[in-house]
Amino acid sequence: MATTEKRRRHHSPPASTSTSTSTSTAGTPASSSPTQTSPADSSSSSPSLDLIPDIARRLTSLEDFFALRATCRAYRALLPPALRPLLASQSPLLLVALYPSFAEALFHPRLRRLHRFRLPWGHHLPPSRHTLFYARGYLVTATTAANNYPPRLLLLHLFTGEQLRLPKVPARFSRVILTADLLVVIFLPGRATVQHCRQGDLLWRVGTAHAPHVFDDLIFVGGTLYALVGLRLAVVDLSEGSLELSFLGGEVDEANRPTGDRFMLGECGGEVLLISVEREDGVVERVVYRVFRWASEERKWEMITNLGGRSLFLDLDGFAACVDQDYPGVRGDCVYAAGLRLGEWHEYSLVDGTCDVCYADYRGAPPLNNDSLIRPSVWIFPSMC
After folding, report:
1. β-pair partners for 267
2. Is 94's pLDDT higher than 50?
3. Domain limits of the chain?
4. DSSP string, 129-165
5. Are 75 and 55 in contact, with CB atoms under 8 Å apart?
6. Residue 96 pLDDT exceeds 60
7. What distance separates the 2 farthest-apart alpha carbons in the chain?
8. 40, 94, 98, 111: most buried, per Cβ within 10 A?
9. Where are the annotated segments for Disordered (predicted)?
10. How many angstroms separate the CA atoms of 79 and 102, rounded?
11. Does the bond joining 366 to the residue before it have cis omega, within 30 degrees of 0?
């Protein structure tokens, strides 16, 4: 497997220096005074702010973008509008860790190369900080105090540098959902409690479903919050008190029970999906992914193998995104799932059932084990921000 090339530093050409005319204390020009240049102007090698949007539109890689953004804070606000064409064409990436520094970088699965950047809270090392999720341009990171509880969620927009800090979380959680209007919903599968918060809220709002219902998974699709409760699909009315569930179907019996060991909700083209993961024992352990759509007329899950050319991406803890087949190296009707091992992912074809196990091979990759303080990789989607 090819190794990652060293990152090249891109230096911008020096900006042209401006000249000024020397004046006397009386305010009249000095007739024989030479042209003078301020020390700041003569030593500056950064482009002026007026040139940044035009330069950004000519960038061809995220590596160039991060190098340009790192040169000056004032550039960050000017870059995103001009970067939309570049970001829209970028393939999904993996957020990986560098060993032993625990710094994070973006790994391009097809090009086998790293895009380095610096997080503002990089001084928090695992296990006091974990990046949990990426959605709508934001990295969702959890930091904990010395006693490891309660955590605080930090949101960083990877491409604008915008930071959002949320209050300390009152109850345990492992899954995070982020909506278009930046409503953050967190929950712990197997529990009946859902916590939600917006920027500016002083406290998290907590809602609890009526017994005996517990949530196996949650997902927003088309502005509606859906819940998976014992393989039953329900619509959730998110309120501050108890959560109201409206089930879309009856109990699942053995005749129509989807096959799998672990289940999660997903979406594709505005349609709610159920995704199952099953590990088959053998000479070589094999992982099988199955996808089911909700058939509203029959009020049950139906297995499908055609996603209309789209592909599903799964983080270790749940659904990440659905992308179109518009990116080099991304196969249609395929499931891309982060594996249990560090830097591992699976490429599973729904068409023929083949599964390729791949590894992020790069300089500074941590050992492939499950005991590391570093969490498994997180999928990043530059085109969705």
Report:
1. 272
2. yes
3. 46-89, 90-380
4. EEEEEEETTEEEEEE--TTS-S-EEEEEETTT--EEE
5. no
6. yes
7. 98
8. 94
9. 1-49
10. 28
11. no
User: Do residues 139 and 125 lie in contact, with contact meaning Cβ atoms separated by under 8 Å?
Assistant: no
The pair of structure tokens assigned to 49 is 């702010």
Cis peptide before 29 (omega within 30 of 0): no
**Token duo for residue 319:** 């659904």
* Structure-token match 């809220």, residue found: 201
The CA distance from 162 to 152, in Å, is 17
Give the contacts of 121 (CB within 8 A, at least 6 positions apart).
129, 141, 143, 154, 156
Question: Which structure tokens are listed for 314?
Answer: 């799964």
H or E element at residue 81: helix 79-88
**Identity at 127, one-letter amino acid code:** P
d(CA 180, CA 171): 24
What gap in Å lies between CA 338 and CA 378, rounded to an integer?
7
Sign of the four-CA dihedral 255, 259, 264, 270? negative
List b or e across 359-383, with b for residues whose CB sees 16 or more CB atoms inside 10 angstroms.
ebebeebbeeeeebebbbbbbbbbb
Q: What pLDDT is attached to residue 30?
A: 39
Cα–Cα distance measured from residue 287 to residue 144, given in angstroms and rounded to the nearest whole number: 33
pTM of the model: 0.81
Q: What is the mean pLDDT of residues 200-225?
A: 93
d(CA 228, CA 265): 7
**Which CATH code fits 90-380?**
2.120.10
Q: State how far the alpha carbon of 239 is from the alpha carbons of 92, 204, 243, in Å.
A: 34, 12, 6
